[in-house]
Amino acid sequence: MPFFQMSKLAILSALKKPATRLYPFEIRPDIDKTRGRIELKVETCTFCTLCAKKCPTGAIEMDRKATPRVFHLDRFKCILCGACVEVCSTKSIHTEGHWAPPTDKRGNVTWTQEAPPPKAAAPAPTA
Amino acid sequence: MGKQTIVPFGPQHPVLPEPIHLDLVLEDEKVVQAIPSIGFIHRGLERLAEKKEFTEMVYVGERICGICSFIHSHAFCHGVEGVMKIEVPERAQYLRVVWGEMSRIHSHLLWLGLMADAFGFENLFMHSWRVRERLLDLVEATTGGRVIFGSCKIGGVRRDIVGGAMADVTKELREIEKMSTEITSVFEKDNSVKKRTVGVGVINKEDAYLLGAVGPVLRASGVSSDMRMLGYGAYGQLQFQPMVETAGDCYARTQVRCKEIYQSFGLIRQAIERIPEGPIETKVTGTPNGEFFARLEQPRGEVLHYIKGNGTKFLERYRVRTPTFANVPPLVHMLAGCQLADVPVVVLTIDPCISCTER
C-alpha cells in the first residue's frame, strides 16, 4: 500500500533513538582524521618557513631572527587545507581532531621558541 | 486570454537555498513565461586564477560549491594534469572515484530532502537528511572534512584510505544503503509524491537535447548521456550504465537521482574491490603551458573546466561552465505552462546550485 510506506517509516523512527544528540550534555566524539585545527609542536620546529611559503592564505607568519623565535598563526585566515602539514619535514605542525574554540577577537595564536632544537645526530657509519 | 500578472519568485524564497530570481508571467494561476535573472553572488573566482599559483587554485576550485566541492577540485586537477600531461597513479584515480561517488550520494540525498521539503513532506525531508548525516561522518572519517574534502591535488590525492579503514567504509556504506532504500521507496511509490510530480514540468527528449540540458534532467528525458562514460579517472575500468528515464517530468528526474544513489554505491564497491596498491601522488614539476577542457560528471550534470596556461605559474584563463547554468534554459521551458503552485517543485528538479553558476 503506497500510503503506508511512509507511515511505516515514521512509526519505526518514532520507536528508535533520536538521530540528534542532546548537546551540550552529549558531545559528539571527535573523529581522528578530522582537520579540526592546526597545532605546532614548537620544540621541534626548525623555523624553515616552508609552511609559511606554502600556505595559500598567508595565515602563517614567523620571525626566525628574533630572540626568542616566534611563530604566528591566524586562525581566521586558516582554511585547514593541510598544505603546511604536508611540507613540514619535522612533523612539528599537525592537525588536531577537535575544533578551535570560538572567539570574538581577532589575533594570532603565537608560539615562542627559546632555543632552537638540537641538530639531529649524524648516522653512525656502517662498517 | 486573461489578464497577465508578473509575480517575482526569489531571489529570497523558502524553497531556494541560494538566490536566483524568476519573473513569472501569470495568467490566472498558470505560468505563461518565466524570465530568469542571475548574478547575485558572483565572486570573481575565475579572475582570481590569474593571481594565484596554479597549485593553490585547487583550494579555490574546491570552494566554488559546497556540495560538489570534491568534483570541482577533481575537474580542476584533471584539467591541469591534462595540460601538463601528468600521469596520475592508479590508486589515486580509484580514490578519486570513491570520494567523487560519496559526494554524489550526499548531494542526491540532500536534494531528495530539499525536494520533499518543496512539496511539503517535512517528515521525508528529515529522514533523507538523517541518512545523509551518516554519509557525511564517513566522508569526515576518510578525508578529514565534511564539506571541503581537501583531498585532491595536482598529480594525485593527499590522503589514502589504508588498512582496515577500507573495510569500515564498505561496512558503513552497506548500512547507509539499507537506510536509503527506505527513503527512495517512498519517493518511488508514495501517492503524495506522485501527485505532486507525475506529469509536472515535462520536457521531451528533443527539447532537452536542443536546449542543452545536462545530467539527470537530460537523462530523465531519455537521453543516455553521462560524462563518466568518457572514462576519466578510473571510471573507464568500472562497469556501469547511465540511468535513464523517458517521461521527462519531475517524477522521472526524481527517479533518475534515486537510481543514481544505488549506482554510486555499486561504483564505490567496485572501486574498493579493484583498488591497486601503490603511490597516491606523483611529483609535479614545471608549469602548465597549453589548454585543456576537463569534462566531468557532477551530481547535477556535466561540468566543464577550461584551463589555459602560458608557461608561468599563473593560469592565463580559467573558465567553469557549471551544470546549473546549462539547465536554466530547459527550466524556463519547463516552467511555461505549469501551475504557480508547481513552480517550487519544478525549479528544484534541476537541482539549482547558484554558487556554482555564478562562481
Q: TL;DR of this structure?
A:
Chain A has 127 residues and is an alpha+beta fold. Chain A is built from 3 helices and 5 strands.
Can you lay out the helices and strands and say which pair or pack?
The complex is a heterodimer of chains A (127) and B (359).
Chain A: H1 2-15, E1 37-40, H2 50-54, E2 60-63, E3 69-73, H3 83-87, E4 93-96, E5 109-113
Chain B: E1 4-9, E2 21-27, E3 30-37, H1 45-48, H2 57-62, H3 69-84, H4 90-118, H5 122-143, E4 152-153, E5 156-157, H6 165-189, H7 191-197, H8 205-210, H9 215-220, H10 250-274, E6 289-298, E7 301-310, E8 315-321, H11 323-335, H12 343-349, H13 354-358
Antiparallel strand pairs in B: 1-2, 2-3, 4-5, 6-7, 7-8
What does this structure look like?
- The complex is a heterodimer of chains A (127) and B (359).
- With 127 residues, chain A is α+β, with helices and mostly antiparallel strands.
- Chain A has a domain at 31-113: Alpha-Beta Plaits.
- Chain A is 19% helix and 17% strand.
- Chain A has three helices and five strands.
- Chain A has helices spanning 2-15, 50-54, 83-87, and strands at 37-40, 60-63, 69-73, 93-96, 109-113.
- In chain A, the strands form two sheets. A three-stranded antiparallel β-sheet of chain A has the order 2-3-5. In chain A, strands 1-4 form a two-stranded antiparallel ribbon.
- Chain B is an alpha+beta fold and 359 residues long.
- Chain B has two domains: 1-42, no CATH class; 43-350, Cytochrome-c3 Hydrogenase, chain B.
- Helices cover 48% and strands 14% of the residues of chain B.
- Chain B contains 13 helices and eight strands.
- Chain B has helices at residues 45-48, 57-62, 69-84, 90-118, 122-143, 165-189, 191-197, 205-210, 215-220, 250-274, 323-335, 343-349, 354-358; strands at 4-9, 21-27, 30-37, 152-153, 156-157, 289-298, 301-310, 315-321.
- In chain B, the strands form three sheets. In chain B, strands 1-2-3 form a three-stranded antiparallel β-sheet.
- In chain B, a hairpin with a 2-residue loop joins β4 and β5 (156-157).
- In chain B, α3 (69-84) runs antiparallel to α4, α4 (90-118) runs antiparallel to α5 (122-143) and α4 packs antiparallel against α10.
- The mean pLDDT of chain B is 88.
- Chain A binds chain B through residues 2-3, 5-6, 9-10, 13, 19, 31-35, 56, 79-82, 86, 95, and chain B through 52, 56, 59, 121, 123-124, 127, 130, 133, 137, 140-145, 148, 150, 158-159, 182-183, 185-186, 189-192, 194.
